[in-house]
Amino acid sequence: MIELGMTPVLPSFSGNVPAALRDIFPSANITRLGDCFYNLYKILFHHFTHKRCIFNDYDVLYSDTFNENTPPTSDPTYISTLGSAVYKAMSKGNKDAVWLMQGWLFYSDSSFWKPPQMKALLHSVPFGKMIVLDLFADVKPVWESSSQFYGTPYVWCMLHNFGGNIEMYGVLDTLASGPIVARVSENSTMEWLKIYSRRRYGKAVKQAESAWEILHRSIYNCTDGIADHNTDYIVKFPDWDPYLSIYSSFPKQDIITTYSNRRFMLTVSDSTLPQPHMWYSANDAIVALKLFIDAGEDLAGILTYRYDLVDLTRQVLSKLANQVYLDVLSAFQRKDLKAVESHSQKFEQIITDIDELLASDDNFLLGTWLESAKRLALTPSEKRQYEWNARTQVTMWYDTTKANQSQLHDYANKFWSGLLMDYYLPRASMYFNRLSESLRENKRFDIVEWRKEWISYSNKWQQDTKVYPVKAQGDALAISKSLFQKYFEKK
User: Fold this and answer.
1) Which residues are in the Alpha-N-acetylglucosaminidase C-terminal domain (predicted)?
2) Rounded distance, CA 384 to CA 370, Å?
3) 467: closest CA among 365, 360, 371?
């Protein structure tokens, strides 16, 4: 990095420690914060920086002491003292240390971080020795409501994704104006898009440029202020009692999800079916996809084109599946067994088709993720543990009970070949099979029994060691063409 002119940023000790540390340091001053972490200051911080002598070589250190953890008191004096202690520990390891900190806390916990508390923390460090990352500036810029962090240097950032989900989404106009404080660029946005398309694919192709114009005003023009976190029904299948009423007043193409400030919290009441975020016309995306497919005659050999083609095809089919899922529930509530089975089969077929599509590009393979985790291991037991970790992170997480899913299940969901076929498809099938069985045998659908079956399957999948491909198979353009004809061309 240094040879390339970059400034490395190294992790510093944030003060977060496991609860078991009390057993080792019974006299230490440890304060519990929130549900996740404990804080310990001074001694361990100094020990950490002393052991990491490499700090002497690099000036920028990052530490997020209060990221999604609320201080035990709102007293500005206490907060200032604490911030000063954190920086003092850093400067002992490196006298030129600069503290790099996420500004996420000022948004996610804005009810606590009022101007006095913000100033107390930001001004507890010598000017120029702290840099704040305005992490969510593309949607919720904190600099606007804090007099530019009260004079503390900051970086305008874009938090494009939560959990590494795979979903096309964007705010291109904001990106063009936000970093330069709403200053309009000399060239128009559309002209920028044409240049981008040519640079991305290496040549000018009219259909590709037209597709990007559509994407700019649809998928990449989210203006509803909602933080996008993919909750499409394929990858975040609802834990839903089908006897409850489906919400009655939302257009098919305007399904919206509401989030709290905490990045992992989905705000859904017990009586409301979770609704995927939908901020654009599905038909616009379908038109753009047709243009992308038509551009394939000139661009099929370009890696970036094939990636975009697979991603857009996946996006369009995933949104289609959302409506098919709702069709299943509607049919069940009408007690129409034939329609339940028909729509269920269509939902499952879409998953199968998307999996085949994703398998055609190296960037959408589960095997790559799992093998990269296993390569880090030094022993067979580590290899098993790392693979379990990798599988768990993208699926159920680990705070499950026999009949209750993790609160963070599917937080890091992925559209990856292998994950769709062996994880998302069986989950949907178990649910749909129980719906059909309920109607066929005239017995009540038992949501708790489905949860038990599904959680048991998930636990077994996390512990499995099946090897998945790490090389793409299939012709992405041919598969995309076939799927477009199958689902979107009039018969």
Assistant:
1) 192-486
2) 11
3) 371
Per-residue pLDDT of 40-77, as tens digits, reads 444 444 444 444 444 445 578 777 777 777 888 899 99
Strand partners, 10: 61
Number of independent structural domains in the chain: 2
Residue 472 has φ and ψ, to the nearest 5°, of -65, 150
> Who contacts 352 (Cβ-Cβ below 8 Å, separation ≥6)?
420, 421, 425
Statement: residue 97 has pLDDT above 90: no
Q: Has residue 189 been placed in a domain? A: no
Residue 108 lies in a domain: yes
Token pair of 12 as six digits: 């510093």
Contact between 365 and 474 under an 8 Å Cβ cutoff? The reply is: no
CATH of the domain at 267: 1.20.120.670
Q: Could you tell me if 155 and 256 lie in one domain?
A: no
Whether residue 482 sits in one domain with residue 357? yes
Pick from 164, 221, 245, 199: which is nearest to 412 by CA?
A: 164
Model confidence pLDDT, tens digit, residues 345-366: 999 999 999 999 999 999 999 9
CB 124 within 8 A of CB 84: yes
Range of the domain at 451: 234-276+307-487
Question: How many Å apart are CA 220 and CA 63, to the nearest integer?
Answer: 32
Q: Decide if 333 contacts 246 (C-beta within 8 A).
A: yes
As a three-state string, the secondary structure of the chain is CCCCCCCCEEECCCCEECCCHHHHCCCCCCEEECCCEEECCCHHHHHHHHHCHHHHHCCEEECCCCCCCCCCCCCHHHHHHHHHHHHHHHHHHCCCCEEEEECHHHHHCCCCCCHHHHHHHHCCCCCCCEEEEECCCCCCCCHHHCHHHHCCCEEECCCCCCCCCCCCCCEHHHHHHHHHCCCCCCCCHHHHHHHHHHHHHCCCCHHHHHHHHHHHHCCCECCCCCCCCCCCCCCCCCCCCCCCCCCCCCCCCCCCCCECCCCCCECCCCCCCCCCCCCCCHHHHHHHHHHHHHHHHHHCCCHHHHHHHHHHHHHHHHHHHHHHHHHHHHHHHCCCHHHHHHHHHHHHHHHHHHHHHHCCCHHHEHHHHHHHHHCCCCCHHHHHHHHHHHHHHCCCCCCCCCCCCCCCCCCCCCCCECHHHHHHHHHHHHHHHHHHHHHHCCCCCCHHHHHHHHHHHHHHHHHCCCCCCCCCCCCHHHHHHHHHHHHCCCC
